Amino acid sequence: MIYQMMFAVITLAILVSAIAERAKISAFMLFGLLWVTFIYNPFAYWLWGGGWLAKLGALDFAGGMVVHVSSGFSALALALIIGKRSGFGEYSMEPHNIPMTLLGAALLWFGWFGFNGGSALAANGLAANAIVVTNVAAVVAAAVWIVIGWNSVNPAH
Q1: Where do the domains of the chain lie?
Q2: Dihedral pair phi/psi, residue 104, rounded to 5°
Q3: Could you tell me which residues are beta bridge partners of residue 88?
Q4: Distance between alpha carbon 46 and the CA centroid of its chain, in Å?
């Protein structure tokens, strides 16, 4: 149960990024309670609890649909309702502390091994496969970020 609760917490972390610096924490806490109750929990049941999507054959390993689809569409709706950040488009909003950005990414990367490997609910080949795929995906994403960042800083290359 606690393992599954962590998925709900991470889903809220994705949502808060859509409204960072534009909402009061108290408002987000109330929103989060209501959102988990009325959006996340039913969606998680539909896929993971034997609900109608599971019965149709939908498979959601490690929260690809429950976590990312529910929070992604909700974050988009929140961002559209709240509007742009103050100063958006007027100046660069690049990360101000690259070492801390990299530390956060490294901690997230390590955490993904537990989430994705743990979704097998056993220490078996499925868990090992999930960990390897997680690592390869993170490496490719990091490489793409480096290339895009390099090209935006050095447009002649």
Answers
A1: 1-93, 96-157
A2: -60, -40
A3: 91
A4: 20
pTM for the full predicted model: 0.76
Residue 153 and residue 70: Cα distance in Å, rounded? 34
d(C-alpha 12, C-alpha 7), whole Å: 9
Residue type, 12: L
| pLDDT, tens digit (0-9, with 9 covering 90-100), for 2-29 | 888 888 988 998 898 888 888 899 999 9
Q: Say how far apart CA 33 and CA 39 lie, in whole Å.
A: 10
Q: From residue 90, give the alpha-carbon distance in Å to each of 65, 86, 94, 149.
A: 35, 9, 12, 19
Give the span between the Cα atoms of 137 and 5, in whole angstroms.
24
- Read off the tokens for 88: 């958006």
